[in-house]
## 1
Amino acid sequence: MNPTLLEIIQTHGNRTESTCYCELTPSLVPTGKAELKEGFYFLLVTNGTAQLANEYQTYELQPSHLVALTPSVRSTIQAMSSHFQSMLLYLKPTFFDSLPDGQPLYEQLAHYLGHYQLPVFLLENEQATYLQKIFALFSPCRNNAANYYDSILNHLCSFCLLQIADILTQIRHEVPDYARRSTDIFRLFKKTLMENYRQHHDIGFYAESLHISTTYLSRIVKHITGHTVRFHISELLCADARKLLECTDLDIKEIAEKLGFSDQSVFGKFFVKKTGVSPMKFRTQRERDKKNYPFPNA
C-alpha cells in the first residue's frame, strides 16, 4: 500500500499540530507513489520532473509548477525523477478555515472543483522565485520563535495564502457562470458567518440570510471546503472559547453567554466534545503551562 503524503512529511518535515512543511525528494517516497488527500497541499516544484494523477488524467510536473489542492480533491504523486525536488506546505483543514485570509484563495480554487481538473499552474520564473522565498520561511520559523510561534505562524500562513491567491488571480482563465455563482454564495456565507457566529449557531439563519435553501447552502459549503456548515460554525466558536478562556478573566458562565449558548452546561458539553476537556480544565492547564514556561528574561 502506498503511504499518504501527509504521513511522509509528518515524519520528515517541520510539523506543528496544524501545519507541516517539507522539502520533498524521491528518497522520502520509497514506494515511488504517495497519495494526497484530506488536506490543503501547496507543492512548488523546484527541480526535476514528476507526475500528478487523479482518476481522470495525469499531469506532467516540472520546475515552476505550483499545485494547490483542497481537502475534497484526491491525487497521487508518482514517477519522480532522481533529481526531483519540491517545496511542500500542508495545512490542516480546520486551521485553514480559521484564517480569514484564506478566503481569496478559496475563491480561486473553487473554480476547479467539479470540473475534473486539478489546480496545477505553471508560474512565471519571477513568480516561482518569489514563492520559493516565502515557502522557505516555514523551515526556520519554529526554531527561532518559541515565544510567539503561534502568532507568527498564523501571519506567515495568511501572507503565503494571499500571495498564492494573487498569483492565481493573474493566471486564472474565465470560468462558467454557475461556478462563479457558487463562489459568490460561499464568499457571502463566510462573511455572514464571521459577523454572526456568536449569536446564531443554526444553518437556517445563514441560508435565510442568503435567500437560499439549507440544502443548497450545505451542498456548496461541503463541495468547496469538504466540511459541513455546522463544522465551520463550531470551529469558530471553539477557537473563540479557547481564546476567552486563556486570555480573559471571564467566568465560564459569562463566556457561555458571550458565545450565544443557552446555558453554561450546554457550552461545557460543546467544549468537551470539541477539545476533550472541560472549559475549567482547559483554563487550568493553560495557566499551569504559563507558569512552567515563562518568558525568558530580557
Note: The longest strand covers residues 40-47.
## 2
Amino acid sequence: MKRHTTAAIAFAVTSTLTAVLAGCNAGTADAGGGEAKTIGLVRFSGSDVYANSALDAIAAYGKSKGWKITEVDANGSVDSANTALTNLATKGVDAIAISVFPTEALASGVASAQSAGIPVANWGGGLGSGVPIAADVSVGEPMAKRVVDDLGSEGALLALGYRPGLPCQRREKALDDAVKKTDIKLEAQQITIPGQVESADKATQAWAQAHPKGGKLAVWSCFDDPATGAVAALQQLGRSDVMTYGLNGTAEALSLVKAGKLTATEWIDGPSQGREIAKLMEKYWAAPKDFKPVEIDGDYKIIDKSNVDDFLADHPELRK
C-alpha cells in the first residue's frame, strides 16, 4: 500500500537568506554537470540496518552520478550528529543527508550547514529551517491497528520504544492512540541504541516472567531490531503464547516471520525514499531559490505468515 500524499511545507525564509544560499552553492555547478558533487551522510547508528538501507540508496544513486560520498556514524548520539553536521559543513560538501534524529534536536549542526548554504535532508527526522527535504518513515497506524485487532482489544501489551528517534516517537504515539480506547494493559519500556537487541531481550524477559501464560499477550517494537531481541527472549523462556510485532521489514525480521517466530512486521520502502531524496537534492541544486520544502511518503505493507512467501518472491533482496 502507498500513502499518496506528499506534504510540501513552506517555511518563512527571508530573501536575504535565500540569496546567501544561492550564492554559496553557485560554485558547485548544476545537477546535470560541472564538477562532481560531494554528499555527506550522517548515519544514525551503524547498527540500524533499516535506516542505513535508506542512506545506502542515496550513496548508490550518488555514485551512479559520479558524486563523492563522505560518511559519518553518529552511533546514536545526537551530540555526535551535530558535530558531524558542523564538520561536514566546514568541509564544504554540497548536501548532507542524516537519518532518524529529530530535526529540532539538530539545531546547532543544521545552523552550521545553513550558514554555509548547504541543504540538509533528514530521512525520518522531519522538516525544519535548513532542512528542506525529509522522508516520513513512521507509518505507525496500520501496525497499531493490527496489534489491537489481534489482541481483541484486551490483554497485556509490552511496547518497546525509543524516544530519541522521531520515527519511534510517532509510532509509539500511534500505538498509544490505538490502545487508549481498549481494555489492553500497556506497559512501555525504552530500549537503548547501540544495544537495541540486547536491551529488548532483557526488557522482554522481565515482562514475560511477570505475565505468565493465560490471556492475550503481545510485544510491540517500534522497529525490527528490538523485535528480534523480543523473539529471542521469548524463545529462551519457551514462550510461544506471546505475539510479537516489529516495523521496517528488515531481512532478519522477514526471516523470523517466515519461520513463524515473529507475528508480523510492517515493511516500509526506505531505499526508494533514499533514491527520491537524492533526486530532490538534484532538484534543489538546479534552483535553490525556487525549491519548496517537501516531506515524502513511501510504500508500506504488513507482512505476516500469510503473505511473506509472496512478498519475498517480489523482493529477493530481502531474503536472508
Note: The longest strand covers residues 242-248.
## 3
Amino acid sequence: MATIRFLLRKDKTRSDGTAPLYLRVTSRRRSRHLSTGIRVEPRFWNDARQEVRRSHPLSDAYNARLQDLRLEAERAALEAGARRAAPEAVIQRLDGSGTSFYRYLNGFIDDLEQKGRVWSWKRYRVLRGKLEACFGPRLDWGDLDGKALLRLERYLTDRLGNGPTTVRKELAMLHRVVRQAIRDGEVGADRDPFLRYEPPRPKRPERRRLTMEEVERLEALDLPPGRLRRTRDAFLLSLYLCGLRFGDLCCLKVRNLEGDRIRFRMNKTGRPHTVPVPERARRLLEPYLEGKEPEDFILPLLQRGDDRDPFHLRR
C-alpha cells in the first residue's frame, strides 16, 4: 500500500518567505510528488500533524483542501493497487494525466537520477528529446503503436541521419520503458507496440585497429608535460590496463595500486574489479605517482574531493 504524506519544500522558498506544499506518494521504494497549490511560511506548517497551524489566517480552508487531497490520493492508491501500480499511477489519477506516455517517461528518468545511474539518465533524456521532436509535446499511450515506431525509425534515419545500429539502440531503450510500464501496471501487456514491430537489423561496423608498431611509436613520442602528454598517457594506460574505461581511469587513486594489480570499483556497475599492471603500464604510471598520498588521484585529471558526489562526478 502506498504511503501518502505532505511535504513542505523549504528548498523552494520564495522571497516572501513562503514555501510550497507537495503531496508525496511513496510505494515500491519510489516517491512521486504533486503540487497542492498551497504555499505557507515554514512556521505555519505542523509536520507531525500534517496540517497548517491554526495561527494561519487561512488554516481552515487550507486544511480542508489537504484533507480532500489525502482522501483522493488514498482512493487512487486503492484503485491502482489492484494492479500493483507504481506511485506514478497514483499521481496520474490525481492530476488527470494517466494516459500520458511522457509523464511516465519523466518518472522513469527521475528514478535513474535518484539511483545515480548517470549514463543511463543522460541517454534517456536524449531519447525524450528525440521523441518530442518526432511526435510533438504530447504523446499518449494510445498513440504509441507499431505505426508510431515506424515513424520514429524514419525520423531517426532520415532527419537525424542515424545508422541502423543507433536506431536499434534508441528503440531498445524505448522498449525498456514500455516493459517497465507493463510491470508497473501502467499499461496492459497487450498494449506493447513492439509486439507488432521489427527493428532494423544492425550492420557490423568497420573499425580500424592500431598495430603494435603504431602503439610503440605513440609511446615513444617525446612530448612536453601538458595536456597532450596526459591525453596520450591516458589512452595508452586504458589500452595496457585491459581496456579500462576512461571514467574509471580518471578515478584511480594511489591506494588502488596494490603491487602488480589495480583494485577498484567500476563507476558504471559499482562492482569491484581487478586488472593486472604490465611493465608498459607501470612505466607510464611511475612519473604520476611521485610525491602523492594514498588518497590522491593518479592522473592529474581530477582534484581531491571531486568524487564526493558520485552523480556530479559522472556528469
Note: The chain has three domains: 3-95, 101-196, 212-314.
## 4
Amino acid sequence: MRIYTLNEKPNLFSKLKPLLNKSLKNDFITDHMLMRCTFNDPNYNPKLTFLAIEDNELIGVLIGVERTKSPREVVEAQRNIAWVKVIAIHPKYKDKPIFKNLLTTFLNEIKGKNEIRVANFAIWHFHPGVDIEYEYYLNKYMANGFKKYGEVIDYHVNLKYFHTPNRIILTEKRLKENGLSFKLASHKHLKDIKKWININFSPYWALEAETAVKEDHGGLWICHNKEGNIIGFSAYGALEPNWLGPIGVIKDARHLGIGSTLLFKSLNSLRLNGIRHAIIPWTRHLFFYSQIPGITEIRHYHLLKLTL
C-alpha cells in the first residue's frame, strides 16, 4: 500500500464518491456534497487529501483541512486547529493499518497545530461528528488518542407526512396581529441581513444564510417586528438542497412562537421544492425539533478532538 495526495493523483477524485458511500453506510454522499466539502470550500487544499492505494485500487481516503480563508472572522482564532473532515476505509481492508497510516501521514503534514478535530468543519462538512453507529471509526480514533468532548444529532424528516399544525397557524396569526411579519429575504437586503446575523449569532450562520439566498434551491425566511427590525431568521437549502437551518431568534423575542413559525415555513418551502427527505443537521435542540411531523430518524454523533 502507498499513500498519495490528491494533488499528486488528481485523476482519482472521481473515485472518492463511490469509496465514501461504500465505506460509510449511513451516509449518502452526492456530487454536490463532495464538491462543497472539497473544491468549493475556499479553505480546501488537495495536498491535505490523502489516498491509500493498493494494486491500483483506492482503498482509503482522509480529507483534511485548515481554516485559512473563510469565514475570515475566525481564521486567526483557529490558526492552531486542523480538521479531519472524513476518513473512509474500504470495508474489505478494515483489518489493515490503513486508518493509522492515513492519520499519521496527515499529522506529519500539519505543522504548528495544537488540536485536531474530527468532521465538524463548519459549513464545509460532510457530517458534524462521528456517527455512534460507526464503531470501527470511533474505536480507531480513540485508539489514536482522540477524546470525546461533546455530542450532537441530526433529525431526518419524511416530508410526505409534513403538515403545519393548527397551533402553528394560530401562533402565526397572533404574531401578525401583534405587528410581526414573515417574508422571504431578497438579494436586495442580503448585505444588511448577513451583517445582522453575524452580529447576533455567528459568521458561520451569516455565511449559511447568504448561501441560502444565492442558491436556486435555497431560501431565507425573515421575521420583522412592528418597527421593521429583524428579530429572527430561518434558512433552508443553504448547504445541501434538503438541509434545513440554521434558525435563530434574538434573545428578547424568544418563547413567543417565532422560531416555530419560521421552522414550519422553512419546512413547507422544502416540501414545495419537491424535497421528500429533509435533514436538520448538527443540533442540540432536541425538544424544539421534536414537534415536527414525520421524523423518521435521529443520527447521533460524538465530537472528537486530539490535543497535540
Note: The chain has two domains: 2-152+302-307, 163-292.
